[in-house]
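Q: For a teaching handout, I want to show students what a protein-ligand complex looks like in token form. Below are the inputs, and the small molecule is pyridoxal-5'-phosphate. Please produce the holo structure.
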Amino acid sequence: MSKFFSGRHAALTPYTPGEQPQDKRYVKLNTNESPFPPSKGVMEAALRESGALQLYSDPTSAELTRKMAEILGVTPDMVLMTNGSDEVLNYAFMAFGDENHPMIFPDITYGFYPVYADLFHIPYEEKPLTDDFSIDPRDYIGAEKTIVIANPNAPTGRCLPLSVIEEIVKSNPDNIVLIDEAYVDFGGESAVPLTQKYDNLLVVGTFSKSRSMAGARLGFGVGNPAIIADLNTVKYSINPYNVNRMTAAAGVAALCDNDYYMQNCRIIMENRQWTAERLQELGFDVIPSTANFLFAKAPGLSGEKLYLGLKERGVLVRHFSAPRIRDYNRITIGTREQMEIFLAKTKEILEEAAK
Ligand SMILES: Cc1ncc(COP(=O)(O)O)c(C=O)c1O
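A: Here is the structure, written as tokens, with pyridoxal-5'-phosphate included.
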């Protein structure tokens, strides 16, 4: 730490992103990216737009916002497009959390939530998931706090039904309820339609998972126009040109090619089912998932050993060292071929460990 670093941030523990190693080609199942490339239309749009990179992007991302609103069935003033969904989360924590608006979220969830809360000095409470890694809705119904829930949750993959989300939103009319739907396209139920009915609901989404654009950085928030206006106040105080030209053009093209992406989601869901069955045959405890990953515990082998054994064999999965989940690994669902390699290497490691 330099002597110049503000004392306000001295105690921060920053978020640790998943590994993106450059040393060799791995079967990469560690950061929940899509195994499928962007559509041809997306690649062409990005290339075309690269010819205008000398100009700033449209700070309102008007065309992209309009198209996104059309797909979601809301009006454009209910949508904010951002530089990945991390950016809209950042703005939301800044806009809606303070000592008068403390926050609650699960103890096992997306690791960025406590980081943002610490960064903005927002008091927060982490509500323990139940023993089977479910969210207990009673922790949130009538909580009278700013609520953040990833649905489906990460890294567990479990989801709450829309009826429960509605109960949580309805019972906290004086607080923002943020539902992070990064993984909703893999079998969850979106709360976006509820944004027409409740003025305290903010739904967050991303193009990083189902739409094969993690490297382009594109996310969005959907909510009542007043909530979106607040987020815009923060955005225009930090980074007005937040979505770059190539990404905005690629985003419009991705929405035009929606069928391609939704078909890819169906393939991933099939591969997820197939992989879960194979893992269960090997004796794994597999948490039911509605996301593009599985959270699973190997029989008689620590999560870290499996992670390291796989890495040595060219397969990357995600391991977290937090005590409640350190026996588990989060495995992104890739193509059938990738999952076959993952399973073959896993078998090898289990057989070696049993010797
Ligand atoms: C639950 C959840 N929300 C948000 C994000 C951030 O995604 P991005 O910033 O790429 O849109 C992630 C990334 O893994 C995530 O798991």
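A: Two things your students might notice: The first helix runs from residue 40 to 50. The chain has a mean pLDDT of 97.
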